[in-house]
Amino acid sequence: MKRTIDVPATVDLGIGKRARVQADGIDFALFNVDGRTYAIDDSCPHNGGSLGGGKLDGRMVQCPAHGMRFDLATGCMRGGGLAVRNYPVEVVEGRIRIVLGDPGTNGA
Cβ distance 40 to 27 under 8 Å? Predict the structure, then answer.
């Protein structure tokens, strides 16, 4: 059975907005790009920079620490190499839920 994390209702994720949420021991960065919500780990795998504060270009976010760019949909770095974990997102009755993998798995 999948596990989900409910994003607090106080988080405003209107179009073009972003937010950082901490839950279940994970720091998430959430982005609403053109009406689609994406969730990734907030920490850059290179050196831990907060991706939630990074420059956004379409669905690519740039780490503010060293400039690495990650695709919000796949978590992959532009040009290959490192990747950040991304999570499926559900919107149920207007509430945003981050979907975690099944307990005991390491997939999202």
Answer: no
Please state the φ and ψ torsions of residue 71, each to the nearest 5 degrees. Answer: -80, 120
- List, in order, residues 6 or more apart from 3 with CB less than 8 Å away: 24, 99, 100, 101, 102, 103
State the pLDDT confidence band at 102, using cuts at 50, 70 and 90.
low
In a domain, 19, yes or no: yes
Task: Enter the pTM of the model.
Answer: 0.87
Say how far apart CA 94 and CA 57 lie, in whole Å. Answer: 26
Instruction: State pLDDT tens for residues 46-79.
Output: 888 899 999 999 999 999 998 999 999 999 997 8
Residue type, 70: F
Picking from 64, 95, 59, the residue whose alpha carbon sits closest to that of residue 74 is 59
Domain that includes residue 84, residue range: 3-100
Compute and round to an integer the Cα radius of gyration of the chain.
13
Distance, in Å, from the CA atom of 32 to the CA atom of 10, rounded to the nearest integer, reads 15
22, part of any domain: yes
| Structural domain count of the chain | 1
